Amino acid sequence: MDLKEKIRSIPDFPEPGILFRDITPVLQDPSALKQAMDEMAQKLASIEFDLIVGPESRGFIFGVPMAYRFGKGFIPIRKAGKLPYKTLSKQYGLEYGTSVIEMHTDAIKPGQRVAIVDDLLATGGTCKALAELVEEVGGVVCGMVFFIELAALGGKRILSGYDVQSLLVY
Fold it and tell me: What CATH class does 48-169 carry?
C-alpha cells in the first residue's frame, strides 16, 4: 500500500502557513500501521544500537513498539517539567517557534549506542537538541529513523554527520 495516500494534509495548522501532515489515518488503519512499523523496523535493523530514544509525543508512538520489537530499552524525551527525576534540558527551534526538551540524567550510560525514532523530520531542531542531550551524557547517536521527512525544511542538513533515514519524504 502507498502510505502517502493515508497521510492527511491539513493547511494552516497549527499556524497559518504550516501544512500539517496528519498521521492519524495511518494509526487508525491496522494494515497501514503494521506496514509503517515493519518498514521502519527494516531501517532500524541495519543500525547497531542499545536503546531507542523518542521525543514526546509521537516519537513514543513509533519508538516504543520498535524498542519492544528489538528487545531494547526506550528513553522518553519530554517537554520541560514532565519528568519526575533529575533532568538535563535543551532549547530548540521548531518550524513555528521554540521549545524545551528534557531527559533524565541517568537515562543513558556513557558509550551506549542510541537510535532516535520519531514521526517527523522537519527543521531538525528537535532531533538536533535530542542528539545533543544524548551526547552530553556520553551516549553515541548511531542512527535516526523517521516516519515522515519534510525535505524542503532542511532537517537532514541540520543533522549532517548522523545516519538519517526516512520512510516517507515530502
Answer: alpha beta
